[in-house]
Structure formats: C-alpha cells, structure tokens
C-alpha cells in the first residue's frame, strides 16, 4: 500500500523517466524513458480503498503499453528504412512514429482512454496525468514535427473533440479531461514554430491547471453541481474559482489569453488562417462549459443548501492565492517583462 | 451609475466588490477608447466582458440572468475571437498596428474583412445578431444596463469607425448588405417595440433600432455618415441610459417592469412625468436634442448613398415616433394601477441622475460644430 515515501520515490522515477526520454540521443533511449514513466505511474494510481482506481490503472496500462510497443515497432521500421536510429526526415516515418506518441499523450483522435482513466483517479494523480505525463510524448513529437495535412487534422480534431466532448459532462474530472484535450490541440499547433512557444504554452497551461485542481482538491469535489456548495460569505473561494477557471478558458484580462494569442500569431505567420479561425471558434465552445462551472461563484446571491461543503477562508492554502494572483495579473506582468530590453 | 445603485449600499450586498467592478470596468473602457494601437484596443475590447458578466450575473434580479450572461459571452466572443485573427492578419500584412498610420487598405482577402467587421457588428447590435441585447439589458441591474447601453455598445461603433478606414476597398462592394439588413431590421424592431409590455425590454429594443441607423451611417463610408453616427452614438448613450434610469425608478416603486402595471404615473409622481416626456422626446429626435442632429445628418448621408433608402427611413422615423408617444401616454396618462398601495415621491438623487442625462442631450446641440465635425 503506497504511503508518502513510496509516492515520493515513484514521483522521482516518473520525472527521471521523462527526463531520460526527452534528452536521449536515440529512439531506444526515448522508449526506455517512456517505459520508466509508465511503470512508475501505475503504482501511484493504485489505492487500496477505492475500486475505481484499479480499473483506471488497468486501462492506462493496456493503452500505454500497447502504444509503447507500437512505438518500438515503428522505430524498428524506420531504422530499417533509413538505417539509423535517430530522427529521420522522411514524412511517412515521422507520421508513423508520431501516432503512438499521440496515443500516449491522449491527443484526439486517440483520446478515448483519457476520460475513463481520469474518472477513477484522485485529484493529485489527475493533475500528474494531465500535465507531466503529456510532456514526454509531446516533446518527442516536437522533435520531428512538420507542417502537413496530418498535423492540421490532428489539431482540428483535438480542438473540436475537446470543445464538443466536454459539453455534456457533469463530472469535473471529465470536464478537465476534455479541456486538456483542447489545450493539447493548441499545443500541437504551437509546436510548428519551434520549441519555445510550445514549452511556454505547456508551462502556463500546467500552472493554470494546477490552480484549478488545487482549489477543487481542498473541497474534494467531483461534480459540477457540487461547485455550488461553497458558502455565500466565502467570497474569496468564489473569486478564486471564477478567475482561475476563466483564465484557463482564455479570456483576455487573464493570463490564459497570452498563450492563445502567441499561438494565433504564429499560425498566421505560417499561413494557417482557416485552422486558426476554427481553433478560435472552438475555444468559444469550451468557454460554455467553463462558465457552467463558475455559475455559483458568479451569481452572488443564491439559495444555499443546508448540507454545505464548507471551506473556511482561513484554511485556503497560500499557494492557491499566489497562483491565482499570477493568473490574474500575469498578462500585464509578462508584457512588462518582455518589454524590459 | 453609482447614484442609481444606492440600494446596494443599503442592503450591503457585496457593495465594495460592486464598486470595484464598476471602477475596473471604467478603467478598461477608458483604456480602450484611448488606445492608439489596434491590438491594445482589442485587448480592452475583450477585457470589458468579464466585469460586465460579473455585474449582470452578480447583481441582477431574476434567475434568467444566467441565460443572459451566457448569451452575452458566447455571442460576443464568437464574433470577436475571429477579430483577433484579423488583427494579427493586419499586422502580418502591413507590419504595424498603430491607428494613425493604418490609412491605406492593406488586406487582400474578403475573409479578413468579414472577421473584422462582424465582431463590431455583433457588439453594436446589427439586427440579426442582436438577440443578446434585450436579454442582457433586461436581466442586468440598473447600473449594468446603463453602462451597457451608454458605453459598451459605442465600443462597437467606435471600432467600426476605426476599422472602416483601411477596409475601404471591400466595403465599397459589400457594405450594401449590412445597410439593407440594418434598415429593414430597424423598421421591424420598431414594430416590435409597439407591442412590448416589458418596459426595460422596450428600451433595449429601441436601442437596437437607433443603433441600426448608426450602423447604416458608418457603412456608407461618407464623411457625413461618420460624423452623424458619432453624434447619434453620444446622443443614444445619454438617452437610453436616462430611459433605463427612469424605468428603474418606476421598478423600485412598483416592483414590476410591466407596462400594464406602471400606468397613470402622472397621478402618482408628477415630477417624474416631465422627465419621461423630455427623454422620450429626445428618443424620437424632437428638435432641440442631439438625437435630431444625428438623425438629420445620417438621413442625409444615407439618401445620398441611395435614394431607395427613403422608403425605409420614412417608415423608421414614423414608427419610432409612434411607439415613443404610445409608451409615454400609456405610462403617464390615464388612471393608475389599483394595486399600488404606496409610492414614494421623487428623491433628489434620482432627480439629479435624470437631469444629468438630459442636460447634455439638449445642450450639446448648441455646440454642434464642436461635437460633430471632429473627424
């Protein structure tokens, strides 16, 4: 049964797996890092007292192990084609090798395992699944990406499925899943112009997701209708919920707008106008389900149920307040920082 | 608008936060009207959505405000995120975004024209995409309605004026589409106003009607059209905002926005009926008001664009006067609703509020050369 020290060990091996796969010279090293990552995440997901985690970890294992073996097979095939084990320039082999990596990262149209797995995890593991577990596959994709029809199809599908799939969900974990799929579509389009923009998008997205998950974690919520259960006089929690979720949606005075702006600018420079417009229209759809989460915090005078999940103000952890204040003022701060030179 | 919200302080209903939101919105609006750069204009244009949403959803009166907030956000964002794409397209093709230097046409595709124009047309509501406006105005608290009607709609008009300058080569061919929609729409909306019973929704629809002519004026890309639409935007802001104040004054007393309940008000609050009359006469562009100046200039620009607009403009102004007079006489004259037990007299605060709305409306026409010919 995992306790805290086991979890720390597993987190260490997880991050070391990510680092190994990102920084390796050959595809074998990358595959090895991905396997270490997978094998250390599976025990982290398990919990003795919850039967849903078993199902989730089994699903995760099957999908990821299948993807890893497919990746190994593709690496072998491209090695036989090109007679080398490092990145090739052949478009077909790149597409072949990107596909299992997309499956590992939960990018549409290979995202079908993602909501089911997220539903069974506790919020800490959900956060790791949404942020850290994506970094390794997406890095490997970014090393061999080129701007062809395959990528555009992946981007458009991701953004559309992330937007439309989240519309009918009531479970908060599934909503975060679909928002993650949507943002991964944006990240894939950020990869076109090189490494910096994708890493910036990923960092900001991770920070915003960390904010939202931290707020939800303290009150142990799982469903959208439970978000209405903070007390009326708990203005701080309501404000935090509202700003962090709308920042994730990309509304302008918040930090979440900045990566979207950068990506749109990059896409326009690369003459991808229709894709940019489609992505932008789908992000309006995502705002609908983000706003559904924030209804109770926006409407300030509402009837309270008797059985409240009370979260007193003095118990709101400080890191949430720090993160939310960064997400509110981040746009202006980043502009000032960028204009310093 | 702070005056109108004295009841907020009385019930201590998150009053500091309300003040903060109103101030924040005011700062954002200042920045958006004062921005020299197209992108910072876009940023503040979008940034005013969040405080407006907060004001509507937080301090509105009915549960329908949820739907109103969703309509507001989704309608305006659906149109204005492609505006972001268009702005960046302008930057890519001409290398700069400063308003002063963007005078020659620099875009090469109709797609960009639609992106840039559509955002402002949804914001300053064009007839077919105006559905968010009655909902948002009706559900908003009084100061939210006033800010919405007074200033936020004018952001759309201001953006259109700024953007038309470099979209000229498309607009010569395509603007007839928007002009015909607005003219016909203005006519239809005035007919709708004639059968409204909800006072606030009536003022909202009359907003749409006025703004229809403003849009036509901007779309003709005449000098007279720009000047007239600028004047009518200022006049409409003051007039609609004042009308919302009056409706709210009545609402605070009778608890209902329905026209069937709020009638015979001249018997109850005679001091208020003069303000009703003055603001209503400005609404239908009666002589010493700024609305008259705006409408005359706009009529001239539209008729010079095509004489066929005379047909619609005649119908427009006739039905405008018709619904205004009907509403004035229905709400003021006659006997009052027998279900009213008590009705407080006019406070000085309300008097001041309405006076400050009416005073520039009828005074600025004396300075019309300063007001209208600034371009």
Could you write a compact summary of the structure shown?
The complex is a heterodimer of chains A (341) and B (375). Chain A is mainly α.
Please characterize this protein's 3D structure:
The complex is a heterodimer of chains A (341) and B (375). With 341 residues, chain A is mainly α. Helix content of chain A is 72%, strand content 0%. Chain A is globular and about 70 Å long. Chain B has 375 residues and is an all-alpha fold. Chain B has one domain (2-372). Helices cover 75% and strands 0% of the residues of chain B. Residues 1-14 of chain B have low confidence and may be disordered. Chain A binds chain B through residues 235, 246, 251-254, 257, 261, 264-265, 268-269, 273, 276-277, 280-281, 283-284, 287-288, 291, 295, 298-301, and chain B through 13-14, 17, 28, 43, 46-47, 49-50, 53-54, 57-59, 65-66, 69-70, 73-74, 77-78, 81-82, 84-85, 88-89, 91-92, 111, 115.
Strand content of chain A: under 5%
**What does the radius of gyration of chain A come to?**
20 Å
Give the distance, in angstroms, between the N- and C-terminal Cα atoms of chain A: 53 Å
Structural class of chain A: mainly alpha
Count of DSSP strands of chain A: 0
Question: Helix fraction of chain A?
Answer: over 70%
Helix and strand content put the structural class of chain B at mainly alpha
Shape of chain B: globular
Please tell me the overall pLDDT of chain A.
84
Oligomer, anyone?
heterodimer
Give the integer mean of the pLDDT values of chain B.
Answer: 80
Strand segment tally of chain B: 0
């Amino acid at each position: 049964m995992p306790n805290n020290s086991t979890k720390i060990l597993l987190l260490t091996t997880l991050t070391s797996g990510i680092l190994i796969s990102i920084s390796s010279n050959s595809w074998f090293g990358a595959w090895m890092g991905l396997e270490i990552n997978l094998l250390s995440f599976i025990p982290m997901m398990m919990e003795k007292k919850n039967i849903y985690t078993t199902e989730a970890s089994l699903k995760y294992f099957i999908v990821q192990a299948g993807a890893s073996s497919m990746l190994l097979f593709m690496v072998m095939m491209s090695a036989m084609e090109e007679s080398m084990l490092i990145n090739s320039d052949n478009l077909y082999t790149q597409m072949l090798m990107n596909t299992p990596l997309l499956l590992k990262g939960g990018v549409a149209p290979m995202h079908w395992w993602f909501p089911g797995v997220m539903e069974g995890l506790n919020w800490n593991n959900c956060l790791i699944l949404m942020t850290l577990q994506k970094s390794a596959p997406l890095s490997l994709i970014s090393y061999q990406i080129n701007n062809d029809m395959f990528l555009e199809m992946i981007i458009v599908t991701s953004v559309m499925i992330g937007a439309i799939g989240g519309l009918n969900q009531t479970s908060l974990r599934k909503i975060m899943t679909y928002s993650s799929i949507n943002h991964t579509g944006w990240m894939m389009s950020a990869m076109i112009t090189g490494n910096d923009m994708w890493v910036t998008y990923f960092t900001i997205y991770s920070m915003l997701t960390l904010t939202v998950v931290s707020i939800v974690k303290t009150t142990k919520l799982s469903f959208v209708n439970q978000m209405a259960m903070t007390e009326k006089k708990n203005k701080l929690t309501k404000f935090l919920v509202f700003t962090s979720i709308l920042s994730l949606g990309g509304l302008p005075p918040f930090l979440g707008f900045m990566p979207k702006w950068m990506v749109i600018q990059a896409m326009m420079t690369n003459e991808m106008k229709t894709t940019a417009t489609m992505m932008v229209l789908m992000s309006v759809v995502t705002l609908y389900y983000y706003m559904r989460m924030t209804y109770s915090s926006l409407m300030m005078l509402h009837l309270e149920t008797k059985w409240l999940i009370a979260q007193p103000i003095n118990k709101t952890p400080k890191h949430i307040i720090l993160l939310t204040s960064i997400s509110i003022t981040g746009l202006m701060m980043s502009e000032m920082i960028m204009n310093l030179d | 608008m702070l005056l109108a919200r004295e009841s907020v302080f009385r019930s201590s209903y998150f009053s500091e936060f309300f003040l903060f939101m109103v101030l924040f919105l005011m700062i954002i609006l200042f920045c958006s009207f004062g921005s020299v750069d197209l992108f910072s204009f876009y940023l503040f244009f979008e940034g005013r959505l969040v405080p407006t949403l907060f004001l509507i959803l937080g301090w509105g009166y009915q549960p329908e405000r949820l739907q109103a907030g969703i309509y507001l956000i989704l309608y305006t964002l659906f149109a204005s995120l492609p505006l972001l794409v268009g702005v960046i397209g302008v930057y890519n093709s001409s290398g700069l975004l400063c308003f002063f230097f963007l005078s020659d046409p620099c875009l090469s595709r109709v797609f960009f024209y639609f992106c840039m124009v559509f955002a402002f047309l949804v914001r300053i509501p064009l007839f077919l995409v105006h559905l968010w406006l009655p909902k948002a105005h009706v559900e908003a608290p009084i100061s939210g309605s006033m800010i919405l009607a007074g200033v936020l709609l004018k952001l759309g008009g201001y953006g259109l004026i700024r953007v038309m300058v470099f979209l000229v080569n498309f607009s010569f061919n395509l603007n007839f589409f928007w002009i015909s929609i607005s003219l016909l729409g203005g006519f239809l909306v005035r007919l709708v106003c004639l059968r409204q019973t909800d006072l606030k929704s009536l003022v909202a629809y009359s907003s749409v009607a006025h703004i229809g002519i403003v849009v036509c004026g901007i779309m003709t890309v005449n000098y007279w059209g720009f000047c007239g639409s600028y004047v009518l935007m200022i006049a409409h802001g003051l007039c609609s905002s004042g009308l919302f104040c009056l409706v709210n004054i009545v609402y605070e007393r009778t608890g209902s926005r329905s026209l069937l309940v709020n009638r015979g008000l001249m018997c109850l609050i005679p001091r208020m009926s003069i303000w009703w009359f003055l603001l209503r006469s400005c609404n239908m562009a009666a002589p010493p008001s700024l609305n008259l100046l705006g409408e005359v200039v706009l009529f001239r620009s539209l008729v010079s664009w095509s004489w066929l607009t005379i047909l619609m403009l005649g119908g427009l102004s006739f039905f405008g006067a018709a619904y205004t007079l009907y509403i004035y006489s229905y709400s003021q004259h006659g006997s009052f609703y027998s279900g009213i037990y008590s009705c407080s007299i006019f406070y000085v605060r309300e008097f001041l509020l309405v006076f400050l709305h009416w005073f520039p409306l009828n005074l600025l026409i004396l300075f019309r050369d300063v007001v209208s010919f600034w371009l």
